[in-house]
Amino acid sequence: MPSIAANLAQIEQGLRKETRLVAVTKTKPTTLLMEAYEAGARVFGENKVQEMVSKHEELPKDIEWHMIGHLQTNKVKYMAPFVGLVHSVDSFRLLKEIDKEAKKNDRVIDCLLQIYIAREETKFGLSEDEALEIISSPDLAALGHVRIVGLMGMASNTDDQSIVRNEFRGLKATFESFKAHENQQVIMRELSMGMSGDYLIAQEEGGTLVRVGSAIFGSR
């Protein structure tokens, strides 16, 4: 089995300079995270808040922590002091909660709106119209401690690469169209799409963040 360092090097070598790697560390012990850290990984993505909080306490403080899983409003307060980017904002209510907790910590937290692009009902996310409603809402201006910096999407779980590519291409088109609505709080600079099985397609279609776990850590 190739080492974590070798896997990271291979993935990084295949990425455009415009695309950053988020190492998905969910369920992995901190010993493996330290291997990835020592190999140069600095952006870690977690699905569960409690797991992210405990790992943040144990690991070096120059790690940038991203919340990539479905986020419940009652868990926001635990990660608000340190989270670097929330990929999975799927309601205005959640955005308001992030703003409230960010304010308590005297921070501005960057967020991505999660867009539903898959052909599966198991995935979370906003429709394009719902997301547009959020970024053009006059109520957004009252949330001074959050910033919407882009979009996130999860493609269908299928071996048909044409379906995946079309879903990513559609998300990129939405991302570009939302640039017309930019202001101080809405800056479309990050497009989070692609995981271990489809990150190369995602970067070809304009992804700026790819979320890769198993291709780094394997079955460790």
From TrEMBL:
The keyword Transmembrane does not apply. SUPFAM superfamilies: PLP-binding barrel. Signal peptide: none annotated. It holds the Pfam family Ala_racemase_N. Keywords: Pyridoxal phosphate. Residues 3-219 form the Alanine racemase N-terminal domain. PANTHER family: PROLINE SYNTHETASE CO-TRANSCRIBED BACTERIAL HOMOLOG PROTEIN, PYRIDOXAL PHOSPHATE HOMEOSTASIS PROTEIN. This is Pyridoxal phosphate homeostasis protein. It comes from Dyadobacter beijingensis.
